From TrEMBL:
EC number: 2.7.7.64
Protein name in the entry: UTP-monosaccharide-1-phosphate uridylyltransferase
UniProt signal peptide: none
Cited Pfam families: UDPGP
UniProt source species: Prasinoderma coloniale
Length: 642
């Protein structure tokens, strides 16, 4: 009896799945032989659904069961089930959605048809003024009630770096990685916020990885003891890929060329886009856990923008003050600059949403509606539409409610590259994509705004290889390469120091990078400090007195308890203080050697150099100057070098 009870559903399912198949397949004895001998009911049902959805090409030319192709067929079945499981609604839902979007792309449907653009509500911050400091302090008070989400699914191959991007060093003075920089910043904000309020809350960091980066991100954290965070504060969420589409009929593309290298991948797949971060947070139940833990705010940030946390406290403060459900951190953008713009779109029925519009869509939209001159600079010298940097601050409660309603699904798009104007064939397979910053489409009635801040204080991503970055720099545009990411960090630190009364850090000097463009770059004084020393401008004002740093100098500060009451530096100095050590520098004068910067001639000669040097195009001697290290708690006054 027990055996019959187990087998009966299978027989019934077989019959149901056979009934689902088109007659051309159901009457094919060879196909049906394979269909029943190789696969169980779940796979049979999926195969039948896919064939009915126009995917019969996946199963063409199947031989008899027991042939050498059986392993490949099973690989295909496993992959199809995985793709079916990881996409909300399954593979057929993906295919049906793709058919609609591909038809709209072929027909040139404008997704913003009927929308009138305007500048949304937002706050333009001037770094260092009274409003900035007020917002910064307000944001700092809420920093321990904030969850931080890092979108880190990328490898550094595009940059010429073989590792994961978060393992890149931010700068070559301390060689601290991006991941450590972020962990340290979160820990420092947490501790300072807790101290303000007499609390002991532990912030959370969620990291979205991919199949390419998951294991290496996990290993980087574990090998370094999770840096300044504790293991229970960090969670990894791995993003799955989606199937590629071969044509306008949304036929899944077979990855024939790579089957020998990776037989488990028969259908070609690619990333679905960083919009999947919302779906992963929904699927893992993290948003509910965070709300239950008393967290109120959620910050999304990118993998290689070391300046992200310089501007973050003030942006959180703006969100609190304006009660923004979604707050896009932005930078001023020049008209027609190749960066998306945060824009308010009002439909004919009066409804509206505030969302990122790509720069190549913005200008024609403006010309066709209320801005006949298109995207032009105003009296400030910039476009009134601020530039999107994919860094978001959200109210956690409403966000959690939205995930409950939507499952974290974000509006998708498709961007096929056609072989010609007939738009009937693709140059290469495409796929559906989604973007993290399109979240406001799911909350049309939410209070959405922006916070804009000067790019030097908020945005210098590393996303271009050295040749492309050099070309951009030569044309007067932001380079967004490894060399600019490093130099912009120094420049930001110098400008922040110079915002403090009594502090003077000399300007930069020039060197020529040995790159495709031989670009001249400005080398600021190497002022490097960790987040424990200062997370905000307010921290710097409390810790810096009369400080003079000469051109070409190197100053490294590591530790919360350091105060520079009176310092003259013409050379190099490092101060490191352990927790509990209070170090006051008062009357110290340092004059010693500088460090020589130079372009890397060996790159031009085709010689092998370390990747982290090659992607920058310059080198500088390792720090070997005096180090004042205080490894025991206590109070210390430094007036001269030992």
């Amino acid at each position: 009896m027990a055996t019959k009870l187990v087998k009966a559903p299978t027989i019934k399912q077989d019959a149901q799945n056979t009934a689902k198949l088109p007659s051309s397949f159901a009457h094919d004895a060879i196909f049906m032989s394979n269909f029943r001998k190789l696969f169980g009911p779940e796979t049979q049902g999926l195969v039948a659904d896919l064939i009915n959805a126009g995917q019969e090409h996946l199963f063409d030319d199947w031989e008899q069961a027991g042939s050498s192709d059986d392993v490949m067929k099973k690989y295909l079945a496993v992959q199809l089930k995985r793709l079916n499981k990881t996409y909300p609604g399954g593979l057929v839902a993906y295919i049906n959605r793709a058919k609609v979007l591909l038809a709209e792309a072929r027909d040139g449907v404008n997704p913003f048809m009927g929308c009138t653009p305007s500048v949304p509500e937002g706050v333009n911050l001037k770094f260092g003024d009274a409003d900035f400091e007020r917002y910064e302090q307000l944001g700092l008070s809420a920093a321990n009630e904030t969850v931080y989400v890092l979108v880190a699914g990328g490898l550094g191959e595009r940059l010429g770096f073989s590792g994961i991007k978060v393992a890149l060093p931010v700068e070559s003075t301390t060689c601290i990685t991006y991941l450590q920089t972020y962990c340290d910043a979160i820990k420092a904000l947490q501790d300072k916020s807790n101290a303000l309020k007499g609390e002991s809350r532990k912030c959370q960091l969620a990291i979205m990885t991919s199949g390419d980066t998951h294991a290496r991100t996990k290993a980087l954290l574990e090998e370094n003891g999770f840096f300044s965070l504790e293991p229970e504060q960090v969670v990894l969420m791995m993003q799955e890929k989606v199937a590629c589409l071969a044509d306008n009929d949304a036929r899944l593309a077979l990855d024939i060329e790579d089957i020998d290298d990776d037989p488990s991948t028969v259908v070609m797949t690619k990333p679905h886009g960083h919009g999947d971060v919302h779906q992963l947070i929904a699927q893992t139940g993290l948003a509910k856990q965070w709300v239950a833990g008393g967290f109120k705010w959620l910050v999304f940030f990118q993998d290689t923008n070391a300046l992200a946390f310089r501007a973050l406290p003030s942006a959180i403060g703006v969100s609190i003050d304006r009660s923004f459900d979604v707050n896009s951190m932005t930078v001023p953008r020049k008209a027609k600059e190749a960066i998306g713009a945060i824009t308010k779109l009002t439909k004919e029925d009066g409804s509206s949403m505030v969302i990122n519009v790509e720069y190549n869509q913005l200008d024609p939209m403006l010309r066709a509606t209320t801005y006949p001159k298109g995207d032009v600079n105003d009296s400030t010298g910039y476009s009134p539409f601020p530039g999107n940097i994919n860094q978001l601050v959200m109210k956690l409660g409403p966000y959690c409610e939205t995930l409950e309603r939507t499952g974290g699904q974000i509006a998708e798009f498709v961007n096929p590259k056609y072989t010609d104007d007939t738009k009937t064939k693709f140059k290469k397979p495409t796929r559906l994509e989604c973007m993290m910053q399109d979240y406001p489409k799911a909350v049309p009635n939410a209070n959405v705004g922006f916070t804009s801040m000067a790019g030097w204080a908020a945005y210098s991503p590393v996303k271009n290889n050295i040749a492309d970055a050099a070309k951009k720099a030569a044309s007067g545009n932001p380079a967004h390469g490894a060399f600019s990411g490093e130099l912009d960090m120094y420049a930001c630190n110098v400008r922040m120091f110079n915002e403090v009364d009594g502090v003077s850090v000399d300007g930069p000097h020039n060197i020529k990078l040995q790159t495709a463009g031989n670009v001249r770059v400005q080398i600021p004084a190497r002022v490097v400090y960790d987040a424990a020393f200062a997370s905000t401008l307010g921290d710097l004002k409390a810790k810096l007195g009369k400080v003079k740093v000469c051109k070409g100098s190197t100053l490294i500060l590591q530790g919360e308890g350091i105060e520079l009451k009176n310092l003259f530096l013409n050379g190099s100095l490092k101060i490191k203080a352990c927790p509990g050590a209070k170090v006051v520098v008062d009357g110290l004068r340092v004059k010693n050697h500088m460090y020589k910067w130079s372009g890397v001639e060996s790159i031009k000669r085709g010689e092998d150099v370390p990747e982290i040097t090659a992607i920058r195009g310059f080198t500088v001697a390792p720090f070997d100057g005096p180090v004042l290290e205080f490894s025991r708690p206590g109070e210390y006054v430094v007036t001269e070098l030992p």
